[in-house]
């Protein structure tokens, strides 16, 4: 995969997990273990002697918890971090905080016996996550590449391109995000006034986290934020978070917008896919839609953004300076579908200004 193995450092208070994960990592030709520590304070002293390319981090540890350590690392020496914790399923809000604080991926720590674990798919998932994370320059905000182990279907597998006539004059805002997006979405909604047209969001996130993400945004912003459900009508002042593991589309019946949730293959390596949401919106809303693409790794949303733009919608992308990973915005810009590129702080105002003009 790479000429020089990626350097990995493990921070976990379990000696057994440090040993087992260390052996698994060292057995992979693309990774090399450069150190382990039972707590963040010892970890930082060791890492200062040789800094890793990627950190595998637990959450619950003595002296300093993993989330606090993650925030410290991302502010002082930004480094790709993969969270591996037994708390990710029982406490999804911890996982959301980790993702908001810059973690590239959150993986559930194995609950099976170590003997079974060594021969399980969980090991492969951790190794893939570490390799993927190690390619991301989180401080330089430079998009280096995307994972290549998932098939890359286009939105055609879910929704064919049509020339259907738009039958509604209602406004709708659609937004896509991935790595770094949990915090970016929060900031976007914070600066978006209550009572705005309905906002439908695809944030790449595992299924078990999306409801907690919606609840958190509902509590911390002025908007009514809910996890999207099939046949749910879109209403002013509401924000709809796409559930993980299923595609979300907008359909129109009798001049009103509704959500349609539909299972299917990965599109642009994701489910839900931003491309699927954007294409459906372009077809039913056309010029009455506004599309926004935020920080994220990969190219999901670039084709859909182009289709929105071609349908007359207003389209915006987050700029490189304020993106944690300038992948999805960059791809959308280069494809020619973005009408305006702005900082995360300026995007909400630009969107509202466009709505007034329409």
What tags apply to this protein structure?
358 residues, alpha/beta, Rossmann fold, 2 domains, seven-stranded parallel beta sheet, five-stranded parallel beta sheet, 12 helices, phosphorelay response regulator activity, Sig_transdc_resp-reg_Me-estase, chemotaxis, Protein-glutamate methylesterase/protein-glutamine glutaminase
List the helices and strands and how they pair.
Layout: E1 6-11, H1 15-26, E2 31-37, H2 40-47, E3 54-57, H3 66-76, E4 81-85, H4 92-100, E5 105-108, H5 114-117, H6 121-134, E6 172-177, H7 181-190, E7 199-203, H8 207-220, E8 224-227, E9 238-241, E10 247-253, E11 256-262, H9 274-285, E12 289-293, H10 302-310, E13 314-318, H11 328-335, E14 340-342, H12 347-357
Parallel strand pairs: 1-2, 1-3, 3-4, 4-5, 6-7, 6-12, 7-9, 8-9, 12-13, 13-14
Antiparallel strand pairs: 10-11
* Cα-atom radius of gyration: 21 Å
Q: Spatial order of the strands in the main sheet?
A: 8-9-7-6-12-13-14
List low-confidence stretches: 140-151
> What share of residues are in beta strands?
15-25%
Strands, total number: 14
Q: Please provide the ordered H/E string of secondary-structure elements.
A: EHEHEHEHEHHEHEHEEEEHEHEHEH
CATH class category of the largest domain: Alpha Beta
Structural class: alpha/beta
By CATH, the topology of the largest domain is Rossmann fold
Helicity, as a percent range: 25-40%
Q: Into how many domains do the coordinates divide? A: 2
Shape: elongated
Mean pLDDT: 87
Main sheet characteristics: 7 strands, parallel
**Count of alpha and pi helical runs:** 12
CATH architecture group name of the largest domain: 3-Layer(aba) Sandwich
- What's the CATH H-level homologous superfamily of the largest domain? Methylesterase CheB, C-terminal domain
CA-to-CA gap between the ends?
A: 49 Å
